[in-house]
Task: inverse folding
């Protein structure tokens, strides 16, 4: 058996790449379905290649994962790169939800503010929102090129998954970063068939970088699993300095009297919008927790 990494997958057909760059078309063995295991882009797999030119081979084993994501569907990601831009308008609640998922998985996070030339102020706003959230905020412009040269340093040694709303420029950034030409949302003048949005996750390993492009999304639930809502606060690194300083224990940092976190919000050490959205997610989690046996 050979070992490779899944770089693409669509309609049950996977592409595995060996270390030397050779690619193989594969299908997943039936046993995976019985195990309710779906191979994901980023998976390290053992496989047997197909015999002839046109014959596909088989994914035989999925090697243990460092991480697995449902949305975007990807395995072994170590850093989530959340791409934002002035256009389309940032959905902060979506970013917060992604950060919660990233924290829960124990991953690193990086927030890129693309299309900086359209509105240089957004980087500042984003930095204020996520101060203390352990996600560096970095403004750049994929089209203008400014800042792109600093990306390799930020992504070195990581398997970085570019995610975020459709149209923020994930594919354009990856193209600029790796000097490749994947599909981007530009209206194709030649064929005039409209937006060329990314439809599948793809892993690129080039220039000693490992980067995933993913389809954009606008809907995102934190998780289908129910989790005690008291856990939510643990995914907000900016609350950590106040651990154990609230009057009540546990404190949800919501409307309890003597809450040190809401005091920090009042004193301007935590962004009030970021905290307000936290209470919304908390409400959602509580609702789900109440209905967990339904
Ligand atoms: N002004 C400006 N436009 C940009 C920049 N980067 C990308 N764009 C444009 O934004 C549009 C969307 O870019 P894509 O790279 O396709 O966006 P995406 O995030 O990959 O979108 P999905 O694949 O649908 O998720 C295209 O028209 C790009 O040319 C930038 O730095 N500045
Ligand atoms: Mg894209
Ligand atoms: Zn509190």
Result:
């Amino acid at each position: 058996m050979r070992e490779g990494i899944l770089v693409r997958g669509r309609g049950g057909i996977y592409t595995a790449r060996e270390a030397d760059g050779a690619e193989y078309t594969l299908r997943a063995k039936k046993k995976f379905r019985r195990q309710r295991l779906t191979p994901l882009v980023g998976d390290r797999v053992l496989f047997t290649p197909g015999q002839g030119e046109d014959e596909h081979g088989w994914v035989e084993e999925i090697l243990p994962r460092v991480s697995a994501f449902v949305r975007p569907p990807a395995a072994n990601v170590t850093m989530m790169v959340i791409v934002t831009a002035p256009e389309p308008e940032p959905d902060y609640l979506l970013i917060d939800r992604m950060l919660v998922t990233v924290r829960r998985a124990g991953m690193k996070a990086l927030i890129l503010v693309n299309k900086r030339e359209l509105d240089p102020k957004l980087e500042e706003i984003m930095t204020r929102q996520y101060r203390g959230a352990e996600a560096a905020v970095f403004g750049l412009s994929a089209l203008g090129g400014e800042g792109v040269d600093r990306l390799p340093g930020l992504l070195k040694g990581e398997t970085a998954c570019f995610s975020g709303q459709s149209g923020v420029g994930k594919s354009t950034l990856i193209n600029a970063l790796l000097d490749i030409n994947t599909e981007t949302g530009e209206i194709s003048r030649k064929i005039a068939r409209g937006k060329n949005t990314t439809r599948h996750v793809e892993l690129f390993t080039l220039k000693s970088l490992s980067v995933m492009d993913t389809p954009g999304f606008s809907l995102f639930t934190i998780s289908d699993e129910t989790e005690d809502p008291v856990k939510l606060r643990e995914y907000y690194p900016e609350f950590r300095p106040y651990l154990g300083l609230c009057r009540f224990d546990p404190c949800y940092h919501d409307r309890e009297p003597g809450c040190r976190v809401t005091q920090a919000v009042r004193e301007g050490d935590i962004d009030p919008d970021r905290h307000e959205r936290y209470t919304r997610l908390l409400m959602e989690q509580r609702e789900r927790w109440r209905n967990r046996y339904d």
Summary: Residues 246, 251, 253, 256, 259-261 surround zinc ion (ligand 3) (CB under 6 Å). Helices lie at 30-34, 92-104, 121-129, 151-155, 170-178, 260-266, 272-290. The CA atoms of residues 86 and 121 lie 9 Å apart.
